[in-house]
Amino acid sequence: SGSGSSELLDDYEEGTFTPTFAFSNDTFNGSYSTQEGHYTKIGNVCHVSLQLVANKGTATSGTATFYNVLPFTALAADNGRSSGVVGYYEGFTVDDPLMILIEANQTGFPLRQSSGTQSANVGNSNVSQTFRIYVTVTYKTA
Which residues, at least 6 apart from 50, have a Cβ–Cβ distance to it below 8 Å? Predict the structure, then answer.
């Protein structure tokens, strides 16, 4: 009920998606028992929540990565970076908190851990055979 065009909501979308996971873009040969994603996009801002419960299979190396999970490509600019929150996890052997960084112009992201003054990728060796993770991200879209 705004009086000007800048006050009107002209772009709203919500939906679901199926998040995928692998190690450095290798084919995931594990199995999922839960694989759910939800999003709400308002204007150029998208809020995403996802959860995975999986058995990692026989992957032997690489960075733990979520592929094609962002329903819209992140803004292709330096200020297009965003961070996310790992709200809960089981089956990760890391000494530091897990974290998410969305890079510009991407539709996926590696799983990272806080490591002193910088972040480090989470590798296959840091993921137990069975794992669970809940992630929430808000980012600007392209």
Answer: 17, 19, 36, 37, 38, 66, 69, 134, 135
